[in-house]
Write a structure and sequence with these properties.
Molybdenum Cofactor Biosythetic Enzyme, Chain A, 26% strand, 11 strands, Alpha-Beta Plaits, three-stranded antiparallel β-sheet, six-stranded mixed β-sheet, 241 residues
Length: 241
């Protein structure tokens, strides 16, 4: 598990069918950057208990932010699948059930209270909107699919659980006019060999004018060094940027 790398899981048939538009990834990216974390992957899954279980099992060693499927309706499988993936019992969580009872009173039973049945050992993520919590185990965080409920939980996780990370990441690029991307391939490989803590990228564009954005991202000091090498190389080739 990398110290500042986050994986994102977004669950829901309604997103994959186009009935709803995902808003979690963009917000997750925004908040992660604020705390000097990076998104290493984002995955969309259907409401399939087997798919969710397998994904959690295969990614249990990562920092994972999961959205959706923690309710009590028949299409909510995240709580159950997480328990199976981690080989834990799904058990009533006293504090979660108490919060649900406070919220709904006698109407908490027989169905709403099921939202308080969590994988053994789970801890709660506070829900400032309706007090029905999310949950987490170690570095695996599970939130509802509703953005207005999930997003405050994201902030709470960074402020209260995940360690502070110093900003050691940078991303710099130049726009090169009227150049063929193929002319840069060998040079890009050379940069990654010389500066192993950066990734080189190129983003070509043909309209309204032909250009390539050539950049480096990664370790702060190596980005600063490598972008100078890139600028000199491009200038020596006779291209402007």
């Amino acid at each position: 598990m990398s110290d500042n790398q986050i994986d994102v899981l977004i669950i829901g048939d309604e997103i994959l069918s186009g009935k709803r538009e995902d808003k979690h990834f963009k917000k997750m990216l925004e908040i992660a950057k604020k705390y000097n974390y990076q998104i290493s992957s984002s995955t969309y899954l259907t409401d399939s208990p087997q798919s969710i279980e397998l994904f959690i099992q295969n990614n249990s060693n990562k920092i994972l932010f999961s959205f959706g499927g923690i309710g009590a309706t028949p299409d909510d499988h995240t709580r159950q699948s997480t328990a199976k993936a981690l080989k834990k019992e799904l058990t009533p969580h006293k504090e979660a059930i108490s919060l649900i009872e406070q919220k709904f009173g006698k109407d908490a039973y027989p169905k709403r209270v099921l939202m308080g049945h969590l994988p053994e050992g789970a801890k709660l993520l506070p829900n400032e909107i309706n007090q029905i919590p999310g949950f987490y185990l170690h570095h695996l965080f599970f939130m509802p699919g509703f953005p207005e409920m999930a997003w405050p939980m994201i902030e709470w996780i960074f402020r209260n659980i995940l360690p502070e990370v110093k900003n050691n990441f940078d991303d710099q690029s130049i726009i090169i006019k009227d150049i063929a991307e193929s002319l840069l391939i060998d040079f890009m490989r050379e940069i990654e060999i010389k500066f192993p803590k950066v990734k080189v990228y190129s983003l070509p564009k043909i309209s309204p004018s032909k250009q390539v954005e050539l950049g480096v991202k990664g370790d702060l000091s190596q980005v600063s060094e490598s972008i100078l090498v890139i600028k000199k190389y491009v200038k020596d080739m006779g291209y402007s940027f």
